[in-house]
Design a protein that fits this description.
Strand content of chain B: over 45%
Number of strands of chain A: 11
Order of helices and strands of chain B: EEEEEEEEEEE
Structural class of chain A: mainly beta
Largest sheet of chain B: 7 strands, mixed
Oligomer: heterodimer
Shape of chain B: globular
Distance between the termini of chain B: 31 Å
Strand content of chain A: over 45%
Number of strands of chain B: 11
Radius of gyration of chain B: 13 Å
CATH superfamily of chain A: Immunoglobulins
Order of helices and strands of chain A: EEEEEEEEEEE
Helix content of chain B: under 10%
Shape of chain A: globular
Number of domains of chain A: 1
Amino acid sequence: SQQGEEDPQALSIQEGENATMNCSYKTSINNLQWYRQNSGRGLVHLILIRSNEREKHSGRLRVTLDTSKKSSSLLITASRAADTASYFCATDGGGSGTYKYIFGTGTRLKVLA
Amino acid sequence: DSGVTQTPKHLITATGQRVTLRCSPRSGDLSVYWYQQSLDQGLQFLIQYYNGEERAKGNILERFSAQQFPDLHSELNLSSLELGDSALYFCASTRTPTGLGTEAFFGQGTRLTVV
């Protein structure tokens, strides 16, 4: 079963607006990552946040992590049409011997020009 | 370009057939992961190899098998194909076996269509 669930499943906004998507997961983690997938293509790594971090920034991206609620959010500021893609969170399942990235179901973002 | 190469990009085959998907990891990466993505779905983890050894198994059907060769490339074999096996199959690679705090680099995927 999926570890993560992204919310909302789909999001449509105007260019220049901010986009926020959320991810909830089930087990403890060592780190959480966000990936972007353009239609039918491979996933591109966006940002990694460790379990002892609460917030991280990278360019127009801001990620928060609340381990007590087992949730993370990805904020894209001043969105552009090129940000149109699906966004996935991925967790490692926690522990010291985990070997797999577990992906959520994704949020489909559409940015209208 | 992630540095991970998957071939072929597209594959169309009939039910009951067998296919092999190939993945070459990024230079220096020892760990390879295989994922299946059905239409508009998330990625389902199938299997992971590190330096030739299987390290983790996910929801991989018995009809599917994989291996990692000494040159670190990996192959995913899908047999007795069914219509429901139609999907995008992704390979990802990392330097470490645990992936802890490590970015995974993904290939562009192989789109398998079973008719």
